[in-house]
Write a structure and sequence with these properties.
The chain folds into 2 domains: 119 residues, Alpha-Beta Complex (Aspartate Aminotransferase, domain 1), CATH 3.90.1150; 225 residues, Aspartate Aminotransferase, domain 2 (3-Layer(aba) Sandwich), CATH 3.40.640.10. 39% of the residues lie in helices and 17% in strands. It is built from 12 helices and 15 strands. The strands form 4 sheets. The chain has a 7-stranded mixed β-sheet, with helices on both faces. A 4-stranded antiparallel β-sheet has the order 11-12-15-14, covered by helices on one side. A two-stranded parallel ribbon has the order 1-13. Helix 3 packs across helix 9 and helix 11 crosses helix 12. The relative contact order is 0.17.
Length: 355
């Protein structure tokens, strides 16, 4: 086990007696090919890169993600959400999204003085599903859908049938879809299929290396899509150059990071299954995620994250941050070492017994 860094957001935000299973980065060290690429780049040229970024990396992104179109680099996927809202809607208009959802989706809509048109995922016996009928009812009131696939926080990896149905609704109602596919490499039993495969002319796909390769501290993202959409989108991006170290790291990850990612996914799957078994034994509402390293857990405790922080000294993401009505839910990041996870689950179990 690598000792946690107190100069990180994850481990430095709370007192030392708190186990942090909240913000979405991993406790594991970065792959050696990435570290090597960073060392080599740091010893070389660190001046301005071309504004359009590394052409080899652009080509790799299209190839590895099965996408077509133009590529624009951006400082991060969250920046892309804000730019999309500004580019494709006007103040006062509605923006569609599925809840529960990663909080910056809601922030991008609200801070842009737009209206959140929330289409909740359906919680079925088999897991979370898209409410396609609900989406159809709301689609007339918006021009933009902010989509997340694999979904954060539920971990759903949407099926080909769901994506085809969503694409049909988007075409019918002239919706532009901005699809955050940041967690695309982090799937388990079923591979990720990009939404753009079914809706290429109306989809902007947002990508980044931060989650799969644990590079959140080297922020970089990319938007991929048809030129007309991408040109409108780019007008709302900050006037910056893509980070040369982040590009070097991402390229190394795509070229040489597969073995590291495969081993990491094996550890994440073991942790996922451990959390799922624990949640079932404790009588909690939970569906094992099909992608991501995030567990979305339903309790019977109001303001559950605040309760667990106080009573278990475990930091989890509050469910209420992912949309109204989710305060009894928590998001647990299981991308940590087994001994850390076991101690956290032990503490949470004791706190649940006292609730």
């Amino acid at each position: 086990m690598i000792p946690p860094r107190k100069d990180s957001l994850k481990w430095g935000t709370y007192p030392e007696d708190v186990l942090p299973l909240w913000v979405a980065d991993m406790d594991f060290p970065v792959a050696e090919p990435i570290r090597k690429a960073l060392r080599e780049r740091a010893e070389g040229f660190l001046g301005y890169p071309p504004r359009e970024g590394d052409p080899e990396l652009r080509a790799l992104l299209l190839e590895r993600h099965g996408l077509e179109g133009e590529v624009a680099f951006l400082p991060g996927v969250v920046v892309g959400l804000f730019a999309a809202v500004a580019a494709f809607t006007a103040p006062g208009q509605g923006v569609l999204t599925q809840v529960p959802i990663y909080p910056p989706f809601l922030a991008a809509i609200r801070e842009g003085r737009r209206t959140v048109l929330a289409n909740p995922l359906r919680e079925t016996e088999e897991g979370y599903r898209l409410d396609l009928a609900g989406l159809e009812r709301l689609a007339f009131a918006s021009r933009l859908l902010l989509f997340c696939h694999p979904q954060n926080p539920t971990g759903r990896v949407f099926t080909e049938e769901e994506l085809e149905a969503l694409a049909h609704i988007a075409r019918k109602h002239d919706l532009i879809v901005v699809s955050d596919e940041l967690h695309a490499p982090l799937t388990y039993e079923r591979p990720h299929i990009p939404l753009a495969r079914f809706l290429p002319e109306r989809t902007l796909t947002l990508l980044g290396p931060g989650k799969a390769y644990n590079l959140a501290g080297l922020p970089l993202g990319a938007a991929v899509g048809p030129k007309p959409l991408l040109e409108a989108f780019k007008r709302h991006l900050p006037h910056t150059f893509p980070n040369v170290l982040a590009m070097a790291a991402w390229k190394a990850a795509l070229l040489e990071g597969d073995a590291w990612l495969k081993a990491t996914l094996a550890q994440l799957k073991a942790n996922r299954d451990r959390v799922a078994g624990w949640a079932k034994a404790m009588g909690l509402g939970h569906f094992p995620p099909e992608g991501t390293y995030l567990a979305w857990i339903r309790t019977e405790i109001p303001k559950a994250a605040a309760y667990f922080l106080k009573e278990a000294r475990v930091a989890l993401n509050p469910g209420e941050n992912f949309g109204p009505g989710y305060d009894r839910y928590v998001r647990l990041n299981f991308a940590t070492y087994p001994e850390v996870l076991e101690e956290a689950l032990r503490r949470l179990s004791e706190a649940l017994k006292r609730a």
